[in-house]
Design goal:
This is Putative ABC transport system permease protein. Belongs to the ABC-4 integral membrane protein family. One of its GO terms (cellular component) is plasma membrane. GO terms for molecular function: transmembrane transporter activity. 57% of the residues lie in helices and 17% in strands. By secondary structure, it is α+β, with helices and mostly antiparallel strands. The chain has four domains: 213 residues, no CATH class; 180 residues, no CATH class; 219 residues, no CATH class; 163 residues, no CATH class. The strands form four sheets. Strands 16, 17, 18, 19, 20, 21, 22, 23, 24 and 25 form a ten-stranded mixed beta sheet that branches. The two termini are 25 Å apart.
C-alpha cells in the first residue's frame, strides 16, 4: 500500500518533479562523467606505459640537488657513456640494449612561419634519436626513418596541427644552436598520444646537436625471458656501480602515471568539487519541491492519518517518492555522465591528448558513486519535509488544508541562524587580522562555512525584511501586480529563503573569486610599478635563454643594458645548523638598477659584491642578521660560504622566497658548463630612446626565437592578467552549473506556487485582474526572489573575497580591488534570471480557465 501510494503520488506530480530531476541528473552527471573520464585516461596511459616501457632503463643518477636530470633550463642533459650500452648488451639474460638520446630542452619551429611547433604549455616537446626497439610506441606511416644529418621524423598529430608534411622544413633550437631539417617521415602512435610533440633524427645527429657529445641519455634494456626485471636491475646495478639509476618496467610505469596523474587529478578533483556545489544547490531545490508538494497534499495526508496511517508511514511515503526521484535521476545522470566523459575526451584531443571514446572505462566505482550521490542527497533533502508532513495531525489537516503553525520552530531557527552567522563573521574578522597567513587561512575556511550555513538558516528571517525593501517600489510602479508580487514573495519566507539560497551560493562563489583575482592583478601591477625599473622583460619559458639569445638581445639598438637572471638549485645551511633546499637567484650587476629591492636591513648593492640576500621571515626564523654567513651547496661538490648583505622586506611576491646573489659570485664555485641557462633577461632603454620603438627593435632581434616572450611593462601586466583571467573564466564556467540549477529552483518554486495558488489566481481573474497583469505579477515575484538571492550572494562573496585578500596581504596580495563591474553585471543578470525563470510559470498561469481555477479545491 505504501509503495502504491507513493508511486501514485509521484506520477500524479511528474511534471512538478521534472525540474528537481534535472538538478539530480546534472549533479550525478558531473560525478559519474568525471570518474569515467579519469578511469579511461588512467587505463589508456597504463596500456601505453605497459606496452612501451623497456624491461629496465639505465640513466645517470639523479643529482641530490636540482631535481630531475632533464632540467630544461640546465642547457645540457645528463648523459651516460656509449660503453654502458655495450656493457649491458653482454649481460646474461639480456636480449638487446638500445642507447637512446631524448631531451626536452629543444624547441621545434616552422621556419616558413617562424612559429613554434607542438605544445607551449603542459605536455612536453621531446626530441631524440630514432631507434628500433622491441616496443616502439610509434611506427613510420609515411616517408622513412631519418637517414642523414638533415632529415627528421615528426609525429603525425603534431604534423597535422602545424600543417607540416613530408618535405616541409623544421628547425630545432637547442642550447647548442639552431639546426634546420627536412621532414623525411611521419610517425604515428600505436596506442595513444600523451599530448607531447615528438621529433626524431638519427643517432649521430642527436648526439651532436642535442647533447653535444657521443653519449646517450639512457640505455633501454630488453630481457630474453630467462631473468625477471628485478634480477636484471640488481645485475645492472652490480655491474655498473655507482652513478647510475636503474628502473624496472613497473617503476617506469609508476613514474609515468605519477606525472600524468598530477594533471588528471587536478581536473578530477576540480570537477568533483563543482559537482559538490551543484549537489548543495540542488538540495535546496529538492527541499523546496517536497515542501510544496507536502503542503499541497495536506488534506490527503490528513485522510491517510484518519484511516489509520501512522506518522512513520506518512514519513516513509514521502521518502519513497524521494527514493524514486533519486533512482531515476541517478540512472539518467549516469547516462549523461557518459556523454560528459566523451566531451572531456574530445576536449583532451583538442589539446593533443588522444584518448579513445570507444574504450570508455566504466568501473564499479562509477555506478556506486552515481547512485550513492543521487539517492542519498535526494532522500536527505526530502527528509525535512517528510518529517514535517508526519507531524501534521489528522484533524488539523482535514480542517485547515495547511501545515501547522511552527512559530516556535521558526524562532529557534532564526536564533541558530543568527548565532552561526555572527560566529562566522567573527571568524572572518579574526582571519583578516591573523598574524600568520596559515592561521588566517584556517579561520577563513571555517568562517566561510559558518557564514554560508548561517545565511541559509537565517534566510527566511532575512526574506521578510529584504523582500519588503526590494518590493517597496513595486506597488507604485506596477500597481496591483506589483503589490501582489511583493506580498507573494513574502507570503512564505521559508520557501523564498530556500529558493534564494540556491542562487546565493553560486553568486557568492563568483563574487568571492572575482574579488580575489581582481586583487591579485591589482597587487601584481602595483608591485611591478613599485619595484621594477626595467622597461622590458624577456622570458625564456620552459627552455631558458641560450647565450646566443642573450647576445641578440644585448645587440638591440636603443638598449642601455641587459640584466640576466638564472635560477641555480642549492641547499642553504644557516649558522643554527638547519638546511633549506632552495634556488639561488643569480643576477648580473645591473640588477640593482632594474629592480628596487624592499630593504629591511643592509644594502641592495651588496648582492653584486659577493653577498647574498635573504627574506625577512627566513632571517627571523634562523635568527640571522647582516654579516652572518650561509653555507651554499650547489651540488656536484660545488660549495661556497656567502655573507648576508641584505634582508628584504616580506610582502612582495616578486622577491619573496628569493635568495639573490651575483652571477659572478656563483661562477667562483660553479663551472660555466654547470650553470643553467638564463631564465629571463630584463632590458633598460637608453636615456632619450623611444621606449616603444626600442621594444619593436628588441622583438625583431629575437624574432628567430618564437619560444621567447618579449614584453614591455604594460604588456607584462596584460600577460599576468590574461593568465589570472583564464583561471577565473574556468571558475565562472564551472560555477555556471550551480547557477543553472539555482535558476531551475526559481522556476520550480514559481511553477509549484502557481499550482498551489490555482484557486486564488482564479479569484483574482474573476475580480478583474487581466492575464497581462497576472503574468507581470509572477515575473515581478521571480525578479524579487532572484534579486534577494543576488544581494545575499554579493554580500557573502564580498566578505569572503575581502577577507581572503587580507589573509594574504603579508604574502604580497596587498592591494584590495573590488570588481564593481562584475557586481553590477551580477545584479543585472539576476533580474534577467528572474525574468527568464518566470516565463513558463507565467505562461501557464495566464492560460488557466477562470471558472475551473475557482472550482479547484
Amino acid at each position: 500500500m505504501l509503495l502504491k501510494t507513493s508511486l501514485r503520488s509521484f506520477f500524479a506530480h511528474k511534471g512538478r518533479m521534472a525540474l528537481s530531476l534535472i538538478a539530480v541528473v546534472l549533479s550525478v552527471a558531473f560525478v559519474s562523467g568525471t570518474l569515467v573520464f579519469s578511469n579511461t585516461a588512467t587505463s589508456t596511459f597504463d596500456k601505453l606505459f605497459a606496452s612501451t616501457a623497456s624491461d629496465i632503463s639505465v640513466q645517470q643518477e639523479k643529482p641530490k640537488i636540482g631535481g630531475d636530470d632533464d632540467n630544461r633550463q640546465q642547457g645540457k642533459a645528463a648523459t651516460i657513456p656509449v660503453a654502458t650500452a655495450q656493457k649491458m648488451a653482454t649481460q646474461p639474460g639480456v636480449k638487446t640494449a638500445v642507447g637512446e638520446v631524448f631531451v626536452q630542452n629543444a624547441v621545434l619551429v616552422n621556419p616558413a612561419t617562424n612559429k613554434q611547433v607542438g605544445p607551449t604549455t603542459g605536455a612536453p616537446v621531446i626530441t631524440g634519436n630514432w631507434v628500433e626497439t622491441p616496443r616502439n610506441s610509434l611506427e613510420i606511416t609515411s616517408g622513412h626513418v631519418p637517414q642523414g644529418p638533415d632529415q627528421i621524423v615528426l609525429d603525425a598529430d603534431t604534423a597535422k596541427k602545424s600543417g607540416l608534411g613530408l618535405g616541409s622544413g623544421l628547425r630545432v633550437i637547442t642550447p647548442g644552436g639552431r639546426y634546420d631539417f627536412t621532414i623525411a617521415g611521419i610517425a604515428t602512435f600505436k596506442t595513444t598520444n600523451p599530448g607531447a610533440a615528438l621529433a626524431f633524427v638519427d643517432t649521430a645527429t642527436a648526439q651532436k646537436d642535442l647533447i653535444g657529445e657521443t653519449a646517450y641519455t639512457s640505455v633501454e634494456v630488453y630481457g630474453d625471458g630467462t631473468r625477471s626485471n628485478d634480477e636484471l636491475k640488481a645485475q645492472a646495478l652490480s655491474t655498473l656501480g655507482s652513478g647510475y639509476q636503474v628502473k624496472t618496467a613497473e617503476e617506469q610505469k609508476a613514474e609515468g602515471n605519477k606525472d600524468v596523474g598530477s594533471f588528471l587529478n587536478f581536473m578530477k578533483y576540480a570537477m568533483l568539487g563543482f559537482a559538490g556545489i551543484s549537489l548543495l544547490v540542488g538540495g535546496f531545490l529538492i527541499i523546496n519541491t517536497f515542501s510544496m508538494l507536502v503542503a499541497q497534499r495536506t488534506r490527503e495526508i490528513g485522510l491517510l492519518r484518519a484511516i489509520g496511517g501512522s506518522r512513520r508511514q506518512v514519513n516513509r511515503s514521502v521518502l519513497v517518492e524521494a527514493l524514486i526521484l533519486g533512482v531515476l535521476g541517478s540512472t539518467l545522470g549516469l547516462g549523461a555522465g557518459l556523454g560528459l566523459a566523451m566531451g572531456l575526451i574530445q576536449l583532451m584531443k583538442a589539446v593533443g591528448m588522444n584518448l579513445s571514446a570507444t574504450e570508455l572505462q566504466i568501473g564499479a566505482n562509477v555506478p556506486i558513486a552515481a547512485y550513492s550521490v543521487g539517492v542519498v542527497i535526494t532522500v536527505l533533502a526530502a527528509w525535512i519535509p517528510a518529517r514535517r508532513a508526519s507531524r501534521i495531525s489528522p484533524m488539523a489537516a482535514l480542517r485547515d488544508h495547511g501545515t501547522p503553525s511552527e512559530a516556535k520552530a521558526n524562532r529557534i531557527r532564526a536564533a541558530i541562524g543568527i548565532v552561526l552567522t555572527g560566529g562566522g563573521a567573527a571568524l572572518l574578522v579574526a582571519a583578516a587580522n591573523a598574524a600568520k597567513a596559515g592561521t588566517g587561512g584556517q579561520l577563513l575556511g571555517l568562517g566561510v562555512l559558518l557564514t554560508l550555513v548561517g545565511f541559509v538558516v537565517v534566510g527566511p528571517l532575512l526574506a521578510t525584511t529584504v523582500v519588503r525593501v526590494l518590493g517597496a517600489l513595486l506597488p507604485a510602479l506596477f500597481g496591483p501586480s506589483g503589490r501582489l508580487a511583493q506580498r507573494n514573495a513574502m507570503r512564505n519566507p521559508r520557501r523564498t529563503g530556500a529558493t534564494a539560497a540556491a542562487l546565493m551560493i553560486g553568486l557568492a562563489l563568483v563574487i568571492g573569486a572575482s574579488v580575489f583575482t581582481s586583487s591579485t592583478i591589482g597587487s601584481t601591477n602595483a608591485q611591478i610599478d613599485k619595484s621594477v625599473g626595467a622597461d622590458y622583460i624577456v622570458a625564456g619559458g620552459r627552455t631558458g635563454l641560450t647565450q646566443e639569445m642573450v647576445n641578440a638581445a644585448k645587440s638591440t639598438p636603443g638598449l642601455a643594458h641587459v640584466t640576466e637572471q638564472k635560477f641555480v638549485p642549492a641547499v642553504l645551511t644557516t649558522p643554527d645548523g638547519k638546511t633549506t633546499e632552495a634556488g639561488v637567484t643569480a643576477v648580473s650587476p645591473t640588477f640593482v638598477d632594474d629592480f628596487r629591492l624592499p630593504v629591511t636591513a643592509g644594502k641592495a648593492e651588496s648582492v653584486n659584491q659577493g653577498s647574498i640576500s635573504v627574506g625577512q621571515d627566513f632571517a627571523k626564523d634562523h635568527n640571522l642578521s647582516v654579516g652572518d654567513k650561509i653555507a651554499v651547496d650547489y651540488g656536484r661538490g660545488h660549495q661556497q660560504s656567502l655573507p648576508i648583505g641584505v634582508i628584504t622586506t616580506k610582502g612582495n611576491s616578486l622577491f619573496d622566497g628569493n635568495y639573490f646573489t651575483g652571477i659572478d659570485t656563483v661562477s667562483k664555485a660553479v663551472p660555466a658548463a654547470d650553470l643553467p641557462l638564463d631564465a629571463a633577461v630584463f632590458g633598460k632603454a637608453s636615456p632619450g630612446a623611444d621606449v616603444a620603438k626600442t621594444l619593436t627593435s628588441l622583438q625583431d632581434s629575437l624574432k628567430e626565437y618564437p619560444q621567447l616572450t618579449v614584453k614591455d611593462q604594460a604588456g607584462y601586466k596584460d600577460l599576468v592578467q590574461s593568465q589570472v583571467n583564464t583561471l577565473l573564466y574556468m571558475i565562472y564556467g564551472l560555477l555556471g552549473l550551480a547557477i543553472v540549477v539555482a535558476v531551475l529552483g526559481v522556476v520550480n518554486t514559481l511553477a509549484l506556487s502557481v499550482v498551489e495558488r490555482t484557486r486564488e489566481i482564479g479569484l483574482l481573474r474573476a475580480i478583474g485582474l487581466s492575464r497581462r497583469q497576472l503574468r507581470r505579477m509572477i515575473r515581478l515575484e521571480s525578479v524579487v526572489i532572484a534579486l534577494f538571492g543576488a544581494i545575499l550572494g554579493t554580500g557573502l562573496g564580498l566578505a569572503w573575497g575581502v577577507t581572503g585578500q587580507r589573509v594574504l596581504a603579508s604574502q604580497g596580495l596587498d592591494t584590495l580591488s573590488i570588481p564593481t563591474g562584475t557586481i553590477i553585471t551580477t545584479l543585472v543578470a539576476s533580474v534577467v534570471i528572474g525574468l527568464l525563470a518566470a516565463l513558463l510559470p507565467a505562461f501557464r498561469a495566464g492560460r488557466m480557465n477562470v471558472l475551473a481555477a475557482i472550482a479547484t479545491d
